[in-house]
Amino acid sequence: MTRLDKLNRALEELCGGSVRAQAEEDGCVRLTGSLDNWEKIVQAGYLAARGKKWRGVLNDIRFTGQEIPPMRTPALQDNAIDGAQPDVLVIGAGIVGCAIARELRRYDLDVLLVEKEHDVAMQTSSRNDGMVHPGIDLKRGQLKQRYNARGNAMYDALCRELGVKFKRCGQYLCFEERAMRPAVLLMPLYFRLKGIPCRYLGEQALHQAVPGLSSSLRFALFFPTAGTVCPYGLTIAYAENAVQNGARLSLDTAVLDMQREGRFIRAVQTNRGTVYPKVVVNAAGVFSDRIAEMAGDRFFTIHPRRGTNSILDKRASESLHDIVSTMGALKTRSAHTKGGGIVLTADGNLLVGPDAVETWMREDFSTDAAGVRAVFDRHSETSPQVKQQDLIASFSGVRAATYEEDFYIARGIHTHNIVHAAGIQSPGLTAAPAIAVDVASMAAQLVAETRAVGQNPNFDPVRIPIPLLREMSPQQRDQLIAQNPDYGEIICRCEEVSRGEVLDALRRPVPCDTVDGVKRRVRAGMGRCQGGFCGPLVAGIIAQELGIPLEQVTKKGRGSELTAGRTKGGGSL
Amino acid sequence: MKQYYTDVAVVGGGPAGLAAALTANREGAQVMLLEREGRLGGILKQCIHDGFGLVRFGEKLTGPEYAGRFLDQIAESGIEVMTLAFVSGIDRTGSGYQLRVICREGLCVIHARAVVLSTGCRERTAKQVSIHGDRPSGVLTAGAAQHYVNLLGQLPGRRCVILGSGDIGLIMARRLTLEGAEVLGVYEAKPEPSGLARNIAQCLTDFDIPLYTSRTVTRVFGSERLEAVEVCETDSQMRPVPGTAQRIPCDALILSVGLIPENELALGLGLSLDPRTKGPQCDQRMQTELPGLFCCGNALHVSDLVDYVSESGETAGRGAADFARGRLPQAKTVPVQAEGPLAYVLPQRLSADNQEKTVFYFRAGKSCGPAVLRVRCGETELLRRRYRALRPPEMERLVLELPAELPAALQFSLEPEEPGEEGKQ
Amino acid sequence: MKEFVCILCPNGCRLRAGFEPDGETFRVEGNSCPRGAAFARTELTAPVRTLTTTVRAVGGERPVLAVRTAGEIPRAKLMEAMEAISRLTVRPPVRRGEVIVHNLLGAGIDLIATDDLAAVLQGGLKDVTPL
Q1: Whole domain around residue C79: which residue ranges?
Q2: Chain A residues within 8 Å of chain C (Cβ atoms)
Q3: pLDDT bracket for residue A319 (50, 70, 90)
Q4: Which of A118, A133, A303, A420 is catalytic?
Q5: Judgement on whether residues C56 and C119 belong to the same structural domain of the protein
Q6: What is the rounded average pLDDT of the residues B27-43?
Q7: Chain C residue at shortest CA distance from B45
Q8: Hey, are the CB atoms on B65 and C96 less than 8 Å from each other?
Q9: Which chains reach chain C with 3 or more Cβ–Cβ distances below 8 angstroms?
Q10: pLDDT tens for residues C44-72?
């Protein structure tokens, strides 16, 4: 029996006769048919991927259970980038796309980065736990493992260059079952062989290192290379450094179609005009399989997996200063997440989560009460300090998972002038810096087939960040306020953000004109009152700075205006 | 860095702080009043509706008018006012307190013998009451909505749902209706409304705005702008009842779901908060457990009337002035205990040197019909008073003439009368 | 007999009021002060309210100015009054208590400012806190 027959038999068992697998000439397997049960569709995909018998799984089973929402596209229509002929067109301004754009500017390449949202880092890159992973559960041979190890090692120098806060705080993997102790004692050796520094901690050492943990936790492994970073902060920093080095960024720009000639993409259509790039980089996150399909070069399928994290009041993090995860409550752990944990974010809040829910909605960022409660229930077992009453915000992100559960980073096979940086999910944040170096080099080589490509002598890797006044010494802060009194006027009381910092956020290389944009750049509205006090003030500053009426200020771009217009007697300044 | 020296520093220029500063000044102390915003008045600036000052001035004033009466006095008082001045932290020193202040002139340090915290409160947010979904615009607290409408002339939405029947929510229902928005309803998770009866009458009944009790908002729809909310019935524990979800199209959800005293500065000084009031514990002079540190207004406990906020400010201001001038004796304290269906009694303790008329505030923990409040000190009954009805939203005020010596704890107990007894009275 | 809440003070007394069958004797129950009785009578015959709202302001440090009717106006005229007020524009400076409109809607009641509003000089906008 061939591998195809075996697969078809297994699919028949799983789904009845409504699904078929067929072998493609390029070595992929394609699943077709229709099902009204999304879970089954995902299971079928995993079934096909099992044992890595195919180059890739193309799961084209139609979901009939509900309508799959179309990709959110900007309402904007203009010709802002029409006729552009960049050397490299990067699609998607998440952490991966922004990092690639920046790395591409080390070469003398004309780079255009397009993003369909109104800001960079609007999806998965801003909707994760910000962990820089040591790579505990990654397997040898996976791209994930390789890029995670390389990326992790780059973080200290990179964050210094880009002016981004990064804390290499280490991670505690805790155990509660005594019976596991002999095995756990041997694990540091195993991890060290994998190149991951690791130390065993007995009960006393653990509770001394992390006060506030549940007393049921007996021992732990400590991974000193784990860290936390603000994920959207790093993405914005990458984007700003790319733009400051001459990359062009076009926001509100969705790729709608591509024209190919033979093995080459010749034109890429967007809602803001047609672009004629030499090389295309696919960094489109949850839509990376759609872009690959447009390019005629698809070898994978994205099955979106939503994860919800919750942020706690800073007051709740007084004694927990590290990343803590447990191996205790295995039964509540989903197979394809790092299991979640308690993370002290780079900005000093405790974060708990994430969970993992398979979904057909690629852009469903909603949270639900049951999911949030489950995460709290689990983590309050790890530390009694984790209480839902301290919750100030929950958010969801959607992971761009493939059925192979690995990154897809490769030059095109059918189509010559494309490089994919796709299927990037956890540990994508950790891996992104290393992925970017490789993908930029692949793209540069492709351009070099048409013309000589040299280094960019003017490349400046250093980005000057917005001054962070609350973390300065009083003397420094006083000096800065003397130069610019706006730094002395506090707008956001919870996070102590000044008018000067809000104005800075609006005057950076990457344009920002929204309340959420300001929030992600300087944290105004991130605190316990969630913008109740500063929201109207920040909106007022944006209106003044941009010279627009307040009713045109948005939360996160067109369609998200903060108000519905003026009151009957509403005037203007 | 500039250094300032003063007897009393008042943090927060809302109704409590204004009263505290004026009283401390009147009592002969040198006073500095610190306000984070550009104008004094606190939340009263945006409370343009009337009904303020009935107790104090015997008039129905609007918020700005009520504040204005104090502002006129401040202007003539010689109190040093710093606006756009943010107190980022307070440290204790040998001779009092040091306040770290950020303002447009730079950082400065204020050395004060006594400090009054009148920092007000903040509003609970959507996630804190477990409303889920994405994060569209159009979901805002009643206070933020009030800021948009009354100070910025902006309408938060044209079809509004209000969650929570607290007074600000009711006031906003009327205000939005007057401005031409449609208020689809006020939803309250509890079986009874939490705002004042008069506000339900003049804000909802007057405008035919429906009030739905035992119902709550559980989810928002839309990712850019709010498109709809999901409303569920609630059980006696205020939990949504499965299978009762209903989708209501709207473009604004306004939350009036509770206020939380702001006490970051007190917490920074190591004070613990009373879980019942969410404010620091204090004595009859509004002095906290730290000598020379006073707290008043909504930072101490959320009041429903500004008149009482001002009164507690005056008490704190007088205490702070006395403390700064060395006129406040250090005395032992006795606790004030609350029994029966009382949510809390304020102050939580009394300094035993008490010789004055003492003001108490209390709140019922649940609605009750006729009930008798008894105040005892050891074996002595100091007061027995019958209340026709008590409701948690309505704070009660009580003045007691206490004996000079308090040998034991002061006990407040509330005893609801048997349902059948009502007719006999 | 009609039941309603007295809105004069925070006590919120629950009133029962109405004319006796003779059509002349007016009866009120549930009030705890004489003002409540008077309120009940007006409320049942010609209810009145104080209107508080804002007026458009141009050239001030805020775009709106808080105002109220100096006395009560017929409840039925609240919306009509809002329409009339929406057509107004004030030019700061305005002082609290200043009359904005004399005899609003001809009801004999003035519209007065309830807050101060300072004028802002041209070009000085950027330095102003929108509060």
Answers
A1: 52-127
A2: 489, 536-537, 540-541, 544, 567-573
A3: low
A4: A133
A5: yes
A6: 97
A7: C115
A8: yes
A9: A, B
A10: 999 999 999 999 999 999 999 999 999 99
Q: How far A93 CA sits from the closest chain B CA (Å)? A: 19
Tell whether A566 is covered by a domain: no
pLDDT tens by residue, A137-151: 898 889 999 999 999
- C16 inside 8 A of chain B by CB: no
Can you tell me whether residue B347 is helix, strand or coil?
coil
**pTM for the model:** 0.93
Beta strand B371-377 pairing with B396-401: unpaired
A118 is catalytic: no
Q: Report pLDDT for A326.
A: 63
Put simply, the answer to whether A569 touches C88 (Cβ < 8 Å) is: yes
* C64 in contact with A, Cβ within 8 Å: yes
Q: Strands B96-103 and B106-117, how do they pair?
A: antiparallel
Q: Give ipTM to 2 decimals.
A: 0.94
Select B1-123+259-328's CATH number: 3.50.50.60, 3.90.1300.10, 3.40.830.10, 3.40.50.150: 3.50.50.60
How far off is chain B from C35, nearest CA to CA, in Å?
Answer: 13
- CATH superfamily entry for domain B125-257: FAD/NAD(P)-binding domain (3.50.50.60)
B392: confidence class by pLDDT, cuts 50, 70, 90: confident
DSSP string, B130-178: T-EE---BTEEEHHHHHHHHHHH-B-S-SEEEEE--SHHHHHHHHHHHH
Kindly list the residues from chain C whose CB atom is less than 8 angstroms away from the CB atom of residue A540: 130
- The per-residue DSSP string of B188-210 comes to ESSSS--S-HHHIIIIIGGGT--
Contact B201 C12 (CB under 8 A): yes
Strand partners, B71: none
Chain B residues near residue C6 by CB distance under 8 angstroms: 198
What is the band of A315 on the pLDDT scale with cuts at 50, 70, 90? confident
Range of the domain at A113: 72-165+226-301+403-465
Residue A77 has pLDDT above 50, yes or no: yes
Q: Is the dihedral of CA A23, A25, A30, A33 positive or negative?
A: negative
Q: Chain A residues with CB inside 8 Å of C61's CB? A: 573
Q: Compute the mean pLDDT over every residue in chain B, rounded to the nearest whole number.
A: 93
Distance from CA of C104 to the nearest CA of B (A): 17
C113: enclosing H helix or E strand = strand C109-113
Number of domains, chain A: 4
> Which has the higher per-residue pLDDT, A1 or A125?
A125
C85 in A contact zone (CB under 8 Å): yes
Cβ within 8 Å, pair A536-C129:
no
Structure confidence at residue A570 (pLDDT):
65
Residue A568 included in any domain? no
Query: Looking at CA atoms only, how far is residue B55 from chain C in angstroms?
Result: 9
Residue C64: C-alpha distances to residues A409, C54, C90, C113, C116 (Å)? 57, 6, 9, 11, 11
Q: Are B195 and B185 in contact (CB under 8 A)?
A: no
Nearest residue to B35 (alpha-carbon basis) of B76, B71, B60: B71
**What pLDDT is attached to residue A399?**
96
**Are C33 and C88 found together in one domain?**
no
* Residue type (1 letter), C47: P
